[in-house]
Amino acid sequence: MALIVQKYGGTSVSDIDRIFVAVRRIVKAKSAGDQVVVVVSAMAGETDRLIKLAHQASASPGAREMDMLLSTGERVTTALLAIALEAEGVKACSFTGRQVGIQTDGAHTNARIEKITAERLKDALADGIVPVVAGFQGINQNSDVTTLGRGGSDLTAVALAAVLAADRCDIYTDVDGVYTADPNMVPSARKLLKITYEEMLEMASLGAKVLQPRSVLFAMKYQVPVCVRSSFTDDPGTLVTKEDKEMEQEVVSGVACDKNQTKITLVGVPDQPGIASKIFSAIAEESVVIDMIIQNIGQAGLTDLSFTVPKGDAERARKTLSKLKSELGVEAIGLMDNIAKVSIVGVGMRSHSGTAAKMFTTLACEGINIIMISTSEIKISCVVDAKYAELAVRALHEAFELGKTPARAQWAAKRIGKGKIAGRRNKK
Amino acid sequence: MALIVQKYGGTSVSDIDRIFVAVRRIVKAKSAGDQVVVVVSAMAGETDRLIKLAHQASASPGAREMDMLLSTGERVTTALLAIALEAEGVKACSFTGRQVGIQTDGAHTNARIEKITAERLKDALADGIVPVVAGFQGINQNSDVTTLGRGGSDLTAVALAAVLAADRCDIYTDVDGVYTADPNMVPSARKLLKITYEEMLEMASLGAKVLQPRSVLFAMKYQVPVCVRSSFTDDPGTLVTKEDKEMEQEVVSGVACDKNQTKITLVGVPDQPGIASKIFSAIAEESVVIDMIIQNIGQAGLTDLSFTVPKGDAERARKTLSKLKSELGVEAIGLMDNIAKVSIVGVGMRSHSGTAAKMFTTLACEGINIIMISTSEIKISCVVDAKYAELAVRALHEAFELGKTPARAQWAAKRIGKGKIAGRRNKK
After folding, report:
1. Mean local confidence (pLDDT), A276-280
2. Whose CB among A147, A340, B76, B306 lies 3.0–4.6 Å from A389's, allowing a Cys bridge?
3. Which domains, and CATH codes, for chain B?
4. Helices B46-57 and A16-31: crossing angle, nearest 10°?
5. Is B56 within 8 Å of chain A by CB?
6. Is the CB of A54 inside 8 Å of chain B's CB atoms?
7. Which residues pair with A379 in a beta bridge?
8. Could you report the per-residue pLDDT of A138-159, keeping only the tens digit for each?
9. Across the interface, which of B65, B75, B143 has its CB nearest the CB of A79?
10. Integer CA distances (angstroms), B177 to B170, B195, B233, B426, in order
């Protein structure tokens, strides 16, 4: 008997029919003797409907009120799914984030989980009840509702799986797994059967949109095996897990593309100690997350400083910087919107050289200019003109031969041949 | 400076435009130096939408889940109204029932308020913040969301007004006050400027639909002056308050009609002590509220027992009784749906005789047969065939000359003439 956390995204609970598809999946797991904890998102479209209403009421609705507003969407789904489960003879009970003891910090709309008691969850499981938990939300110390940011339901699911020491956390979504590249951009993109937390984290951060990055971090920290699966099929999906020997054989696992960034450039920044600190502290106070930072060596004691922020935060960052402009002695602030960050990711990069060179050469061959470069142990990212994004992704996908079935996939296929379906059972 | 609780019903917050009408009203009260606590219902249509979804998921959705589901509607409104207030420069903060400390019993979908701490409300008021409270809801001892039954937002408003010792509780709705009869039935119906709690209670219970009966009881108990007003006009509305001398001059204040009842008849009930107790205890256990009860004297130790219940509860009551049928030795159970309860209400009845006779004569003159009769100190109700409901109401309205401006209204008009608008200021 395994304990499984199943998370259903918005498209997987978009109407009552879809909710009953989830019900059947839960019933199947129960019949197989597993214990199931369900985490749900708001029904597809609901969050956007509420956001639209809020923006009709105000150009800049307050964060606390947005949390009060948006947290209702998940609650509706929990109640409906619990009602549907009961209708099928399964004992079920809906819970809010507060009710399962998800305590967060006070950062409304982007709160961090500080503690989870999960007492009522454990009680429910002990009583044979399927708990249906509202994802995306918790409460802060004032007992006000907080939300965990876009995709926060993934985080709820992974965090509950960690707290309950679940055997697996299944993320049901509208894609059937993690691909070597976005199949819409690259027809030859291949679904991965396995991927490491580190790779997934880079993929998620880089805009692969499959899993919320924070939930991957959380899964990595607590070693929760996460399975990304389609709620529309019985495909085993992609298992996100810790690194194993087979994985190291590949250099690059996937190509990601993120068009949701804006490059901000501060022109003529005095080249003095403490300036960068002032700039980024001010932006951090606005809870804007900075991605890449580049400082060019300038002349006459002046330097240009460029960094990227999520598109939606760019205006806020610009305003904050404008206030500091004269204090810092900055000449100008420029925003560049039409950019894309293209990245290659793979744990094998650690032990291979020449990967970066191959990437830059590939882009150069296509006549694509590189605007910014950033690297990590297992990732290389290049910012390019947005119009070249698809071309860059396709070229890199081909250059690193990602469309071919590599050693790792062959290994996984072998396991499937043995009747052990990779991605369905925890292989830790 | 007065402290006013303003409650906005579903039609008064049905969209963002309507919400801004409420905002302007709140701003006006604040500008006049008043403190305002706002209580809101779900946006018109939202509760029905959610109920429909629940019924798509199950023929008989559980009560706890229904509360989880429906309580979201009011929360959405609180957030949107708070956002709109902030957009107009008014400091505002949304609160759930739980957050203002509304503790209820465990009767899901029809919970009773046990305690209200209102601490956060008091803090907010002290800080000059307009609290916007979700009506209709509280939490039980398990910290699960409960709801207070249809129209429960009225109860929330009145209860908060009582706890805060507010100067007045304004109920903004889509009618501009309490009328001598339903204006849709009786064109000559006249709006009352004042009505006693007792009369309002009878009117509300009898289907006048303006105020939830429990909220009137609560207002009476704690002597909260309640004003029923239209959110579409600046009409002073109807003040519901305690009895004063002027009021006693009238015998009948209004005629009410309730078509939402079903008559249940138990035929051949053994005429023994304890039988009625068994019957009504069983029904009470199902939380079905009984209205009128009539026991006919029968023959051979058998009697017929008739009573009325809300239409929606009739089937549940019948099922419960069916289980008891053989145990009790009841011959048959009959349901009669097509009935209407027509009532005249007035505190003056206490000191006047002949009112009942006049009512029965009026109905007889129209050829309307009376099926059941029930009376209280300030009310006489007759159950008649539903098809005669409108005719009965019109005839009674005319017979008691309710279309004419009576002494009480003249008195109120005089006060208005003096610049003191009855129904806008507390005259206790």
Report:
1. 87
2. A340
3. 3-174 (3.40.1160.10), 261-336 (3.30.70.260)
4. 40
5. yes
6. yes
7. A345, A376
8. 999 999 999 999 889 999 999 9
9. B65
10. 11, 10, 11, 16
